[in-house]
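User: Predict the structure for this protein chain, please.
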Amino acid sequence: MNREQPILDDHLHLDPVNGDPSEAVSEFAETGGTHLLVLNKPSWTLGVEVEQKGDFREGFDLTLDATRTANSVLPGRAWTVLGVHPGLVSRLVDDRGYSPADARELMQAGLEVAAEYVDDERALALKSGRPHYPVSDAVWDASNAVLRHGLSLAGDLGCVLQLHTEDTDDLAEVGEWAKDRGVSPEKVVKHYASGPVEGATPSVVSRKEELRAAVASDEPFLMETDFLDDPDRPGAVLGPKTVPRRVRWLREEGAEEAMRAAHVETPERIYGIDTRAALDGFD
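Assistant: Here is the predicted structure, written as structure tokens:
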């Protein structure tokens, strides 16, 4: 595939502890992929059980290492997105006996550490969210408080906040929270979206049905796999070859303009990244 056409996976995990980042990125690049946003995996999956603010750094630094590996392989560039997986609240409350309030405080502290990495330009954006499964009212309230704290930090930094949330196309309330904290709703990116999302920019999981809906909407969107780099679950959620293959398919279907927008124009407007300039052979 022509390298003059950037291909970005907006949400992919690399696991330097359990997986093989070099192999995963090589598969992505060999299929035509050029750029990645690398998200840190949940801390406990990297062998880190957080107890205090500084404990988050180990998982974040491992993710930076994985991003460096990606940058040694890609024809373009990888950027790191750091934050606190919303599922941590359940691990703390259900498995470790934390109160929802104490879990909230620790997770907010973790986001503050991630913000330090964005502030010194080691990371591009933040991630936060709320559980996508049923929880108690107290846990739900604590999770929304964490999410709002993430928005406040993003507002202070002028960066994007990626969100892991319930399956929904309506984040209008979150969009209002964002505006209250100086964040444009378009800079709130809904990870694992299934199509257009009110109150956020969708990062669409790259299955054909969801991508057809995104293209048909004529609304801005990004594409992702949510690849987990888990040797016990090969290809989960989608394999690293998926986005390049879906881009090729959509171009064959006549969606050339939508693909240019998703991989050049929208990333530049949302994240401030120039995927064309970051490719080898471009100034």
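The first strand starts at residue 8 and ends at 13.
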